[in-house]
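Sharing a chain and its predicted structure for anyone who wants a worked example. Both blocks are below, sequence first, tokens second.
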Amino acid sequence: MKLSDFKVLSFDCYGTLIDWESGILTALRPLVRRAGITLNGEAILAAFASLESEQQAATPDMRYAALLSLVHARLAGVWGVPDDAAENERFGASIGDWPAFSDTVTALNALRERYRLVILSNVDRVSFRATNHRLGVTFDAIYTAQDVGAYKPDSRNFRYLIDRLAEDGFQKSDVLHVAQSLFHDHAPANEIGLASAWIDRRHGANGWGATAPPPQGVRYDFCFNSLAELAEAAL
């Protein structure tokens, strides 16, 4: 298997193209200060990850910004302070403020010279529009959890991706899914037999950050420490 075998790159967005961990930690600062939390960033992200994945499974049709607001309220409860409705809403609306990784724009523009570029993201359409200008490229298609009615790692997201691309004449074997999260992306890609490339944005860090731990045996076909490495290998 070679990178040149593929015609379409489908991307997870948050965690892969957008540095959601720094964005989440910045947006949680008011709550962390109010609660007097002394946890380090990794422990805060782990608390977020647990509640986010649980909430996504419980309310798969909830718009992501609203889901984040609810997760924020639940974090307040876990940390022993009353939740604040305005603070919850600000956290849910912070998605568009989360920064892109430094290599994202250059790598995407290089990759679009060879591949069709598609987004498959655990987000709602309005929130992604707030992010899109940070990515510096026009995507050929954008598929969100709101479109699917479920959040990754539900494999319906990947079946939706494959079905929509088939309408444009692409086979599953033409598609390489590019993502950081082994839990949200690579495990369900394995389930449906979709090739994947792991962008190990957290290389050298302990734990799983803002994502839940992956199941045992999760696989990927390529591994890079950055999107820039993928673009260099592909072009």
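Comments welcome. The chain has a mean pLDDT of 97.
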